[in-house]
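Ticket #4471: structure export looks truncated?
Reporter: QA, pipeline team
Priority: medium

Steps to reproduce: submit the single chain below to the structure queue and open the exported record.
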Amino acid sequence: MIEKLVRRDIETLRFKLPYVDEKLINLSQNEPIRGIIGDKYSSRYIGPFYYELKDKIARKHGLRRENLVITAGANHGIDICCRCFLERGDSCAIYEPTYGQYYMIARVNGNEILKFQLNERFEPDWDLFKKSAAKLLFLSNPNNPTGNLVGLDKIEEGLKTGKVIVVDEAYAEFTDFTAIELVESYENLVVLRTFSKVWSLPGARVGYTVANEKTSDYLELSHIPYHMSNMAVKLAYDVLDHEEDMWKLVEETKELREEMRDGLSDLGLYAYPSYTNFVLVEFPEQVSAYDVFNALIEKGIFVYNVSGQNGIENCLRISVGARENNLYLLKSLGEVLADWGTRFNTVIR
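Actual output as written to the record:
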């Protein structure tokens, strides 16, 4: 099945790259004779397939290395999917509101992007995608910026359209299930993961795709060789030994998130339930989210203004920070509202 969904010239990209065992004297890759800072991770190539990191991730998920492609962050995974499944002029789809990089990366690759609207529960209507010309859909789950979660049954419903669905699970550790459970059953499924969130390595730019082995083989053909920094790969490999610390971070973030939601509620604001490390805050009609955004900047706080997106027109997305920063945000937000003489009842959903 997947052979019919990839770009027509995909097989012309298949060429064999050497995997050189570390035991060999490697005089094949024009590397420097020695490292200036003496670090083998900066003076030697360790690609191009990053088997050691793949094997470690595969053990974590109960998979094989053949299910994985290592990426330079989740955004690179988005790019690889565009290159693998879409030709110039082909269309992909998103359901709004969602992560803005899908649109940007698709356009950089010369692809059109069709925009559908999520329903009032922020869930997709699959008929819109099925009837469209789009070959591929990007689905953020949990969704950024709404913070909600679509269940596996709903994702399977979408996969049965026969089109490619890329499920972006940047925040998956804040939930209790993953679409990775479905990759062996659906060749048209790709799951994106990142080390930028709960693994605390946003500056390293490391992620990976998870898919059926046949699908992963095509994804591996769709990026340039030696695309990863050796130091980034080493950081990702090492941090996987700290899984207990990662789960502590997740629980701490959840606690701070709910404290923030309670504090926003005390101010009379509605903060949507969230399965992420941020909250979506809705302001009442008499208060402009855009004005609040600018007022917070004046107080030294930068949040994310999503008020221009359909379905969340008067909302801001606020990341969960350290407790002292969250408390300062709530204090500042209270001052902004008080300055306007604004006190109102909690919005009920």
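Status: closed, not a bug. The export was complete when the record was re-opened. Leaving a note from the reviewer for reference: The chain has a mean pLDDT of 93.
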